[in-house]
TrEMBL record:
UniProt cross-references to Gene3D superfamilies, sorted A to Z: 3.40.50.2020
Keyword line: Glycosyltransferase, Transferase
CDD domains linked: PRTases_typeI (cd06223)
SUPFAM superfamilies documented for this protein: PRTase-like
Entry keyword DNA repair: no
Protein name, UniProt field: Phosphoribosyltransferase
Domain Phosphoribosyltransferase positions: 6-151
GO molecular function per UniProt: glycosyltransferase activity
One Pfam family linked to the record: Pribosyltran
Length: 165
């Protein structure tokens, strides 16, 4: 990975969201719902939801990153997980900020695959090493990305918690 960083500002994110939505619309894909991968995917899903006129947004919480380029061995779904009934037969657009290794997107896509009519992925950034090649990508990079929502440290720190995998 390059030592240089990709810097995404709020203004640039606004443009990225519109252009990503434009790709989805130009492809003729009309999702019934957008499934965001929290936390970074929440911003992407909201942007896509408005631009594609999709009000049905769901959230899936997945923990993988623990710090800058530090991650768990495998991504872990955190409760609550979406109900299969809510996803049954739907066209689902999975939204996330970055496809880095692809492990998180694969976990979510595979979870959806047994329940939905069609699942596609939309990300702001995709890295060359990602095992998931997303249908909709705003920009490809091999750099570490500074997102506007995580560029500064938290206002307060919470004590680390041990989670069962």
């Amino acid at each position: 990975m390059s030592t240089e960083r990709e810097v995404l500002t709020w203004e640039l994110f606004g443009r990225a969201g519109r252009e990503l939505a434009g790709q989805v619309a130009a492809d003729g894909y009309e999702p019934d719902l957008i499934l965001s991968i929290a936390r970074g995917g929440l911003f992407v899903a909201g942007s896509l939801g408005y631009a594609l006129d999709v009000k049905n947004l769901h959230v899936m919480n997945v923990e993988f990153y623990t710090g800058v380029d530090q991650r768990l061995d495998l991504p872990v779904m955190l409760p609550p997980t979406p109900s299969a009934v809510d996803l049954s037969g739907a066209r689902v657009l999975v939204a996330d900020d970055v496809a880095d290794t692809g492990a998180t997107l694969k976990l979510v896509r595979d979870f959806c695959a047994d329940h939905v009519a069609d699942v596609r992925c939309a990300v702001v950034y995709e890295k060359p090493r990602s095992t998931v090649k997303c249908e909709y990508v705003w920009k490809r990079t091999d750099r570490w990305i500074d997102f506007p929502w995580s560029a500064e440290p938290p206002v307060t720190s919470r004590a680390p918690r041990v989670r069962d995998a």
